[in-house]
Amino acid sequence: MPIYEFYCHRCHTIYNFFSRTVNTETIPFCPKCKTEKLKRQMSIFSHLSGSRKEADDLPIDETKLERAMNMLASEAENINEEDPRQAALLMRKLTEATGMSLSPAMEEALSRLERGEDLEAIEAEMGDILESEDPFSFSSPSRKGSVSRQNRPPRVDDTLYELT
């Protein structure tokens, strides 16, 4: 039985749903909020972890980044280069696995790819903007000594819900 992960923005929680068959279309409502439609998460098949050898001020665990890149490289081998949505999916997986944030322009370009727009058209319209800013960043806490909700990992609900 496939298990799908969904995220609730309001609860800042990831929920797991199982389905008796492959079901890539159904998007459930939040089990807690009841009215919030969840957002499908890209699941990774193994938990990425590593010992934190780096200094605390480094924004990313290099071991985690290397593992994420290896996972994505193997998925990229099977990508359909004619489908911009698949490229966008890989980019989403990369940012999710590494904790990186996308710049506003890169976020817009990625959203357009997810809608199926042509990559060359996006590059023609946004190329200058995309080249002038750093496409990735590591968010910093909003106030000294506290971590904003956006920078905290979401809570994971251990309940396995049925996807109907």
Shape: globular
How many β strands by DSSP?
A: 6
Largest beta-sheet characterization: 4 strands, mixed
* Structural class designation: alpha+beta
Q: Report low-confidence residues grouped into runs of 5 or more.
A: 45-59, 140-148
Radius of gyration of CA atoms, rounded to a whole number: 17 Å
> SSE order in H/E notation?
EEEHHEHHEE
Identify the quaternary structure here.
Answer: single chain
- Lateral strand order in the biggest sheet: 3-1-2-6
By DSSP (H or I, 4+ residues per run), the number of helices equals: 4
Average pLDDT level: 76
Give a structural overview.
Helix 1 (62-76) runs antiparallel to helix 2 (84-98), helix 2 (84-98) crosses helix 3 and helix 3 (104-114) runs antiparallel to helix 4 (119-132). It is built from 4 helices and 6 strands, in the order βββααβααββ. It is of the alpha+beta class. Strands 3-1-2-6 form a 4-stranded mixed beta sheet, with no helix packed on it. The chain has helices spanning 62-76, 84-98, 104-114, 119-132, and strands at residues 3-8, 13-18, 39-40, 101-102, 136-137, 155-162. Strand 1 (3-8) and strand 2 form a beta hairpin.
Give a short synopsis of this structure:
By secondary structure, the chain is an alpha+beta fold. The chain has helices spanning 62-76, 84-98, 104-114, 119-132; strands at residues 3-8, 13-18, 39-40, 101-102, 136-137, 155-162. A hairpin with a 4-residue loop joins strand 1 and strand 2.
